[in-house]
Write a structure and sequence with these properties.
alpha/beta, seven-stranded antiparallel sheet, 38 strands, 37% helix
Length: 1076
């Protein structure tokens, strides 16, 4: 069927900030959809609140709105833009839920907007578990036994019928939020209450437990002519009971017989037809009982899902792009396959390799949360690896995770080992291999873990091979054993550990024996047709398909798996480098292992190597491709950690030199440089032992900030107020050593923090953005909201900041991007640190200024242009006020105190744009999911130092019509200045206390600054109950001031103004691009 002619303008809703359960894979799907629709001549309007994405780049849509994803905002955009259609299926659960709400409130009908890509009926059947179960019953597909509850009574009745353990799943939530497995009545009550609260329609599904069954997923597409293709089958390494986002998954499925696979296939096709998804992709999950082959259909997502990104990258079949084309009327047989150029999309992909996805967790960031995996997703990122066998792809995947210190278990007692095997956790893999090495049979491990015996056999074979190498001299290892080790994807580093040699020696020995990798192409068709896109993976076989060219080429090292502290912002920079250098006629080569991102799309760069970011793997590619330059400064800490070794091995690293990067990271050298340039910094020192740390802290004076060197995201960073706390930190948090010194700085209390992004080369220095942090010093810059342009910094200090930035850029000979963190205290500007690399704030600054700074930086680094050629002003102007705010995953980690500090906890960010600070900050808060209270009771409890400020804020709240309630000390101070204020007990003073009030829904805002140790328990209880009941909570006075400003703006101006980036930046965007 030809494409539709009744629609011309299409609105796409993105997925908002990166959260656990909804990450960069939706940036990838949204980007693909925007490109596909514009290619077909449609006008595309995009709304998304996340500035760190490629999809919100002004080049990708005709109109780009970075606005909160709320019904009010999107209605205002629909009213302004008058689109003909809305595509709801590429923005994850957020995009889907919002589209349904717009439909149900009659907003789409009112403006004549059609839903394309999914009809409302099929969305509802796929999402509403009650309707889905009924639909499956009609066609005889078995779902797990159970029922639906909308309240506690109904829930109790169901569990009495099905017994324990029972699985609870809330409807319309994401990544299993609010769900869980209950093994007894007490847990059941707790999870049901949480689930009903988490579900927007207060509905939970309560099902029989099928824990221990095998779990499979099929990725399916269907068009209007009822053509159905299965893109790929995916098998979970972990059995049912672990959320698929937290499980190692393998494509294609490894342990299904052909008959079983055909049966699942038939069920999947029956399911997609019954649900009625006519145009696009769906992900259908099955459970299979390993004892008797019984099948249950678990759920279906009638949209592009997390697994779609994996299936796309695994097969080379771009699901989101095809889904977008189906939505506008094409059928599968009319869409060509980009990779073969000969086959249509109705050809089912076949793959002659194995793909493994492994999640990455961040439990160490959330002390107090239990490291146990269940039905609620907890991983913050993932890696994917491709190999010819399951063993090869699994072990390539494990080394892609960048475990800095491999977990080498020793002397684990049996009872601990058995518990670790029986209860899934993030370190489970290490425990399985430990058990195999220590005489556990695979049957015994299977009994404890329910992991399929075939997978365990594969691991056992690798362990047996390692035992043949262990303890031998490197030269005594027979060449065929070494070759087999490489075929099993054991890294040079692992072999060097087993043979007590160095990684370099293993590399030399391997090359002497001609054991080198070859590269194969992903071709979607099991090598039946030639592949036109160089999408490559390494393996140890004979024939190499890499076929490198003779062009000028630049290699870009990506940022690996997403994690807290290193997210999609760095992927954005890598993509921008690739786009700009491609346009400048370089061949671009991307190396990365993250399946979620745009950088690993087969058409982002000229060549894509889907490989781990380790020294070994990168060197193999460099030797094959011989690039004239390698970019390490854009992918965060991952490629920077490799830069020294690559540089020593003669790899041409372009941009700022590795020596300069080291100088900025090395505390002693950097301090000396600042002294030489006469730039103040907080007093500091470097310690290699606890004794030395105490001596330095005593000399500097408490409070001090302590942290290990060479980390990202404030890992293990703390503010220490006395010697006892310092002792505790040195004992528990870190191992100080001469190789890994501890950095100690004077903590500048109540200082204002500043973030500066700049571009530099020998011809010029351009300041891209001077951002002011809204939270005061002591909160990690990634966790603080910030505003551009700075709102309250005197011009005098801005001049000083410009002066320091220029001097440092020249002294460090920066070529490309640099980021400075500064603090202002007592009217003096201090430099805290300088990073001569791309920072987390680059995409935000680029969207706020309308200048693609990462593209410009990559052209300077490659020597294609000088910075002076761009004729940019000294400081880039910012036409409106832009606020960036973080988004946190505290809800996923029960028992964690949601307090901010020097260690980073946020998973993503949103941006708000306004004419005034209040409007911009309010939008950022709404984008981050906070519902701003416009009336009600405001609770205030602050420490003595904050009481003066609290009076000012309380008076303002009173004028806005809020009632005040406070704990004894704060209330006394407020009453003293004539403010009416109710007094309430602290949690440890009696009942009803403040936590009770929060739980009863009587409080609409909490302002609570930490008072120190004694009241820690009290405050934690307040913050936890506020988190649980969605009451906006602020833990800093500056944050409270900003929020009250936003509330005041919202009260005085109920009209919502929406502005597209194209409108804000006018023609300037084009000139910046023309300059490129």
């Amino acid at each position: 069927m030809p494409k539709r002619t009744d629609i011309h303008k299409i609105l796409i809703i993105g997925s908002g900030p990166i959260v656990i359960g909804q990450a960069a894979e939706f940036d990838y799907s949204g980007t693909q959809a925007c490109r596909a629709l514009r290619q077909e001549g449609f006008e595309v309007v995009l709304v998304n609140s996340n500035p760190a994405t490629i999809m919100t780049d002004p080049e990708l849509a005709d109109k780009t709105y970075i606005e909160p994803l709320t019904v009010e905002t999107v209605s205002a955009i629909i009213e302004k833009e008058k689109p003909d259609a809305l595509l709801p299926t590429v923005g994850g659960q957020t995009g889907l839920n919002l589209s349904v709400e717009l439909y149900e409130r009659g907003i789409l009908e009112k403006h004549g907007v059609k839903l394309i890509g999914a009809n409302i009926q099929s969305i509802k059947i796929g999402e509403d578990r009650e309707l889905f179960k009924a639909a499956m019953d009609e066609i005889g597909l078995p779902c797990p036994k159970g029922g639906f509850a909308h309240n506690w009574e109904e829930a109790k009745k169901i569990v009495d019928e099905i017994g324990y353990p029972a699985i609870i799943r809330p409807a319309f939530t994401l990544g299993g939020t609010g769900g869980g497995t209950a093994y007894n009545p007490e847990e059941f009550e707790e999870i049901v209450e949480r689930g009903l609260a988490a579900s927007p329609i207060s509905q939970v599904l309560i099902e029989e437990s099928i824990l221990g069954w095998k779990e499979y997923e099929l990725e399916v597409m269907r068009d209007l002519n009822d053509n159905v293709v299965i893109i790929c089958s995916i098998e979970n390494f972990d059995p049912m009971g672990v959320h698929t986002g937290d499980s190692i998954t393998v494509a294609p499925a490894q342990t299904l017989t052909d008959v079983e696979y055909q049966r699942l296939r038939d069920m999947a096709i029956a399911c997609i037809r019954k649900v009625g998804v006519e145009t696009g992709g769906s992900n259908i999950q099955f459970a299979v009982n390993p004892k008797n082959g019984d099948v249950r259909i678990i759920e279906m997502n009638p949209r592009v899902s997390r697994s779609s990104a994996l299936a796309s990258k695994a097969t080379g079949f771009p699901i989101a792009k095809i889904a977008a084309k189906l939505a506008i009327g094409y059928t599968l047989d009319e869409i060509p396959n980009d990779i073969t150029k000969k086959t249509p999309a109705s050809f089912e992909p076949t793959i002659d390799y194995v793909v493994t996805k492994i999640p990455k967790w961040a439990f160490e960031k959330f002390p107090g949360s239990e490291d146990v995996l269940g039905t609620q997703m907890k991983s913050v990122g993932e890696v994917m690896a491709i190999g010819r066998t399951f063993k090869e792809s699994l072990f390539k995947g494990l080394r892609s995770l960048e475990a800095v210190k491999p977990l080498r278990l020793e002397g684990v007692p049996d009872h601990v080992l058995q518990r670790k095997l029986a209860r899934p956790n993030s370190q489970r893999f290490s425990y399985i291999t430990y058990a195999l090495r220590n005489g556990y049979s695979i049957e015994e491990i299977h009994r404890l873990t329910s992991i399929d015996l075939w997978f365990l056999e594969q691991l056992q074979e690798v362990m047996q091979l390692q035992a043949r190498i262990d303890g031998r001299q490197l030269n005594d290892v027979p060449s065929e054993v070494l070759r087999t080790a490489k075929e099993f994807a054991l890294s040079d580093r692992r072999i060097s550990y087993l043979t007590h040699s160095s990684e370099e020696e293993v590399r030399e020995r391997r090359k002497d024996l001609n054991i080198v990798p070859v590269y194969k192409r992903v071709d979607t068709c099991g090598a039946e047709f030639e592949s036109n896109t160089p999408y490559l993976y390494s393996t140890y076989e004979e024939e190499c398909e890499a076929d490198p060219t003779e062009r000028r080429k630049i290699m870009i090292l990506g940022s690996g798996p997403n994690r807290i502290g290193q997210g999609i912002e760095f992927d954005y920079c890598c993509c921008h480098a690739s786009f700009a250098l491609r346009d400048a006629d370089f061949e671009t080569i991307m190396v990365n292992c993250n399946p979620e991102t745009v950088s690993t799309d087969y058409d982002t760069s000229d060549r894509l190597y889907f490989e781990p970011l380790t020294f070994e793997d990168v060197m193999n590619i460099v030797e094959k491709e011989n690039p004239e330059g390698v970019i390490v400064q854009f992918g965060g800490q991952t490629p920077l950690n490799l830069s020294d070794r690559l540089h020593k091995a003669g790899v041409p690293i372009i941009g700022t030199s590795p020596e300069s990067i080291d100088l900025a990271e090395d505390r002693k050298l950097f301090s000396a440089l600042l002294q030489e340039l006469n730039i103040p910094q907080p007093p500091n020192g470097t310690a290699v032992s606890p004794e030395e740390a105490k001596a330095i802290a005593a000399k500097i004076g408490y409070p001090v900030v302590v942290r290990p060197s060479f980390v990202l995201g404030g890992r293990a960073m703390a503010i220490v107020y006395d010697e006892q706390a310092l002792d505790e930190y040195m004992r528990s948090a870190v191992d100080a050593s001469p190789e890994k010194p501890i950095l100690i700085d004077k903590f500048l209390e109540r200082a204002v923090e500043i973030d500066v992004d700049a571009l530099a080369d020998e011809t010029a220095v351009v300041i891209a953005g001077i951002q002011e942090h809204i939270e005061e010093a002591g909160i990690h810059s990634g966790d603080s909201s910030s505003v551009l342009p700075a709102q309250r910094i005197p011009e005098e200090h801005i001049e000083t900041i410009k002066h320091y930035t220029k001097n440092l850029a020249r002294a460090l000979k920066v070529v490309g991007l640099m980021n400075l963190q500064l603090a202002i205290k007592d009217d003096r500007v201090y430099v805290i640190e300088v990073n001569p690399r791309a920072s987390r704030t680059v995409p935000f600054v680029a969207k706020a200024t309308g200048v693609p700074i990462a593209k410009i930086a990559s052209l300077i680094m490659a020597g294609a242009k000088t910075l002076a050629d761009f004729n940019l002003p000294e400081v880039l102007p910012v036409p409106k006020i832009f606020v960036k705010s973080p988004v946190f995953p505290f809800k996923k980690f029960a028992g964690v105190d949601p307090i901010l500090g020097p260690e980073m906890h946020s998973t993503g960010e949103v941006m708000g744009v306004g004419e005034t600070f209040g409007e911009a900050y309010g939008k950022a808060m709404e984008g981050a999911g906070l519902i701003m209270p416009l009336s009600g009771k405001a609770f205030i409890s602050v420490n003595d130092a904050d009481k003066g400020q609290a009076v000012v804020l309380a008076r303002r709240l009173k004028k806005l019509g809020f009632e005040l309630i406070a704990t004894y000390g704060t209330a006394k101070r407020l009453q003293e200045v004539g403010l009416e204020c109710e007094t309430v007990f602290k949690v440890n003073e009696g009942r009803p206390n403040i936590a009770d009030y929060i739980k009863q829904g009587e409080i609409s805002l909490v302002i609570n600054t930490p008072l120190g140790r004694t009241s820690h328990y009290d405050e934690q209880a307040i913050r936890k109950s506020a988190l649980q009941f969605n009451v906006p909570t602020v833990t800093t006075m500056t944050g409270a001031e900003a929020l009250i400003e936003a509330i005041a703006t919202k009260i005085s101006n109920s009209e919502i103004t929406v502005r597209s980036l194209q409108e804000i930046h006018g023609k300037k965007q084009l000139t910046a691009d023309e300059r490129i």
